[in-house]
Amino acid sequence: MAGRNFLFVPGPTNTPDRILRAMHRAMEDHRSSDFPALAAPVLEDLKKIFKTSTGQAFVFPASGTGAWEASLTNTLSPGDKVLASRFGMFSHLWIDMAQRLGLEVEVLDAEWGEGAPVERYRDALAADKEHRIKAVLFTHNETATGVTSDVAGVRKALSEAQHPALLMVDGVSSIASIDFRMDEWGVDLAVTGSQKGLMLPAGLGVVCASQKALSKYDQAKLPRCFFDFGDMRKANATGYFPYTPSLPMLYGLRESLAMLLEEGLENVFIRHHRLAEGTRQAVKAWGLELCARAPHWHSDTVTAIMVPPGINGAEVIDIAYRRYNLALGAGLARMAGRLFRIGHLGDLNELMLLGGIAGAEMAMRDAGIKVTLGSGVAAAQEYWRGTAAPLEKRELPPRAPEAQPAAAPSKKATAGAAR
Prior knowledge:
The protein contains 14 helices and 13 strands.
């Protein structure tokens, strides 16, 4: 199909040309004396993205799932109790992993479309007088439902209960896109992946660990090998990795971090909020409902849109892809067929997102949803026009004088020119 595929799933996201060019490298020796000049600054700059001065970043050749596993296995032992809430597909999968690793999980089930139940975390922590709970698992942004939860709130619950449990946060679809404050919020282990806000292909699982989390390493008895913090710390201290890293991905990550820091993290968060709010204005104009049940849970990286009864959301997604070369996110597990998702994170601006909104409108009409074509586009346009930065007043350059027509040559001058 001619033209570019419009990628509006909530990961992988668009990879900027600048990052693609940085990744287009001949292979190098990852044991050379020059290699630490690449690796060491990348690991240090990652701390700025997590907003930590004392934490340590680890980069594994994996996805966010590998980073989940690294967080659990390097700090916990078989039979340890963890507290987690399940309110979407990804919070469910992290719970499933913890159980399969041999941990005891106290699960706080909540409705899909709501955020993590902070009050129930508070009650469970207050009731745990013997401090059997060794870790709290918390999904910052539930990608399946378009819901963002209150990390600062769960840290407050831990503090009020004077509970020593580690706070582990899944920030796969939030970090580098939605405000995240590791040190301020007392997060002990924060997890992300390369294919979301970092604007890279999938392939890197990133963990940032607090000093408190690192202090649990020697007592942790869950099996680990590939995801071992000890091996990583030893090698990273000299600027290397314990096994072969992906050179192109590291060069891409270096460029990604440069782009984020050049824009400024606060500006990145503001941009994502504006894009998300414009998308929500489009949904309102369509007369449809969000999966997120209240505004304080609205995600700034993905909007999950409920389809009307009798409509299969999967059909909307299939039509968008086959007919309009537009990739939309699917409903997962219990939300399968009930919604579709528009991802709006990473390398994105208003005009790009208007294309995704317009394509979604056409696909919905083709699937039998009675939306007015152009209504969502117009609503997003009005919102973005109204919230755009004011134009700078500047003097226009003087207009060049119009050229005077040349005088016609005389008959005498052209008489000998005819053939």
